[in-house]
Amino acid sequence: MSALHVEARVEARGVDLSLDVESGGALAVLGPNGAGKSTLLNLVAGLLRPDTGRIVLGDRVLTDTGTGVDVPPHRRSVALLAQEALLFPHLTAVGNVAFAPRSVGTGRRQAHREAMRWLDAVDAAEFADRRPRELSGGQAQRVAIARALAARPRLLMLDEPMSALDVTAAPAIRSLLRRILRERDRTALVVTHDPLDVLALADRVAVIDGGTVVETGSVREVLTRPRSAFAARIAGVNLVAGTAAADGLDTDLGPVHGILDTGCRPGDRAVAVFSPAAVAVYTDEPHGSPRNSFRVTVADLEAHGATVLVRAAGSGLAAEITAAAVADLVLEPGAQVWFVVKATEIGIHRSA
């Protein structure tokens, strides 16, 4: 498979993107709604032309505004698997999959053989003669995957492929996609909001916010040491941004004391990251061993398995405590409390 390089700016959408996907790698693209994720997919697919930019897939230049190159979508060797299967309603499953090789000139019989091979590869051969209306959501998505692969793309793009599936179908499709991406080292872009998709399908992550890439790294690095607010929400951790100081971080919430990463120096832009489980909640500010205290207003309480997530208004901070502690503290929305975290529980990392 081929490496992907994207440099593109679309002024009307406030987008200025720069990212790379290694050959045979799967890059998960995260970000809030309106951040620019769909714009990225449309740029790579050739459905949107940037004001300025260059997009290269392997040794092929797909877009270059400087030289006027703009390869049409059907010649880019890029396949997009969307949230909905989007199968042709008048064709059977095998007819839908055969459409891909037929569209590039393959004969009818050979296209049928290839379609059956791909249906078998996604465990959907038994549905070959069914029309889309006769398929469940999971079955239709399997056929859509087979159709995408039958086009022999050099890049596979997945746009929230599990979001329209029910909870019973999604795990099976996720497992299938993982096998498909791994077995032949397929290069892929995976747009998702689900951390399970990131963990199962990707080896690297890019976070887009405000039209730019604000964070990149391995899956483990981004989910355990996030440097952006959105990645922190996905990872389920607290994040406070500020400027590194000699013994911690200067922030809008006040000084935060923690353990600085090697290479994080005073004056650097940095973030403090800590788990909600590391946060204790008090009605009065405690004193004693080195710790961080944040005066907050409770915004809401959320059941979180056997514990309760106490979310603070404004700051985005959260504490994870027992239901018994919630009762003892008489916590409710609007209550004024202290979130307290030991310095040893906070990691401070350099940010972009």
TrEMBL record:
UniProt cross-references to InterPro entries, sorted A to Z: AAA+_ATPase, ABC_SmlMolc_Importer, ABC_transporter-like_ATP-bd, ABC_transporter-like_CS, Mo/tungstate-bd_C_term_dom, Mop_domain, P-loop_NTPase, Transp-assoc_OB_typ1
Domain ABC transporter: 4-235
Assigned keywords, A-Z: ATP-binding, Molybdenum, Nucleotide-binding, Transport
One term of GO molecular function: ATP binding
Organism domain of life: Bacteria
Pfam families in the cross-refs: ABC_tran (PF00005), TOBE (PF03459)
UniProt cross-references to SMART domains, sorted A to Z: AAA
Mop domain location: 287-350
Descriptive protein name: ATP-binding cassette domain-containing protein
